[in-house]
Amino acid sequence: MGRHWILATTALILAGCASLPQQPTRPRVALETTAGRIVLALDPAAAPISTCNFIGYVVFGDYDNGAFFRTVLRETNTANPHPIDVIQAATPRGSDDDSRPPIRLERTRDTGLRHVAGTVSMARDGPDSATSSFFIVIRDTPSLDFGGARNPDGQGFAAFGQVIEGMDVARRIQGMPANAEEQLTPPVTIRSARLLDAVPSVCTR
After folding, report:
1. Cβ-contact 177, 12 below 8 angstroms
2. Which residues neighbour 166 within 8 Å (Cβ) at sequence distance 6 or greater?
3. Which of 162, 169, 201, 203 has its CA 20 to 30 A from that of 185?
4. DSSP strand pairing (183-195 vs 66-72)
5. Domains and their CATH numbers in the chain
6. Given a cut of 60, is residue 205 above it in pLDDT?
7. pLDDT of 91 above 90
8. What's the rounded mean pLDDT across residues 161-166?
9. Residues with Cβ < 8 Å from 19, sequence gap 6 or more?
10. pLDDT value at position 96?
11. Nearest 10 degrees: CA dihedral of 185, 186, 192, 198?
12. Residue 90: strand pairing partners
């Protein structure tokens, strides 16, 4: 059981989803939140590891009843010399969810993606440590790219998609009340996260 059972079960679920009508370009995920609907278009061609990891959590229902729990505004993020504008989400198990192994960091140097407004990206501590927590960029933030100085290691974060609907909702979440630790008070609940299209073939191999 354990890790091998989880990987095998994920493969079976993704294989079953692959029988849906094929839309191979940019699969969409709809996040229904207490603040409104946000739809993400993922990029399996540029960032297959991050995309397939995210889809795995979605099809298992792991984000259901999770939350956008953190908001960062560059005007108040003065503790870091490279401030950012993001909202961060997690499963109900929290941002340190260790229910599955961490994934390899897909650097923007290699993917060609950039942390512009609307980008969805994986949260992490050190390189190769991301699991389920992700964030949405509210304003262009190149310091999150490879070589950027937001993280001292300079490796940047793994961008893997873009908001295509509900950017107004994301901005509204960013402006909601938060405490001194940037924690939303209260968090914005993710009622559900659903894959709207077929699972990319790269995720079923």
Report:
1. no
2. 31, 36, 37, 38, 39
3. 162
4. antiparallel
5. 3-203 (2.40.100.10)
6. yes
7. yes
8. 98
9. none
10. 84
11. -10
12. 67
d(CA 36, CA 168): 9
- For residues 173 and 71, is the Cβ–Cβ distance under 8 A? yes
* 86-90/134-137 β-pairing: antiparallel
CA nearest neighbour of 103 among 158, 49, 52 = 49
- At 77, list the tokens: 């993020």
Q: What is the 3-state secondary structure (H, E, C) of the chain?
A: CCHHHHHHHHHHHHHHHCCCCCCCCCCEEEEEECCEEEEEEECCCCCHHHHHHHHHHHHCCCCCCEEEEEEECCCCCCCCCCCCCEEEEEECCECCCCCCCCECCCCHHHHCCCCCCCEEEECCCCCCCECCCEEEECCCCHHHCCCCCCCCCCCCCEEEEEEEECHHHHHHHHCCCECCCCEEEEEEEEEEEEECCCCCHHHCC
- With CA atoms as reference, report the closest residue to 130 among 154, 86, 153, 97: 97
Asked whether residue 7 carries a pLDDT value surpassing 80, the answer given is: no
pLDDT tens column, 93-126? 998 888 899 999 999 999 999 999 999 999 999 9
Structure tokens given for 196: 């709207």
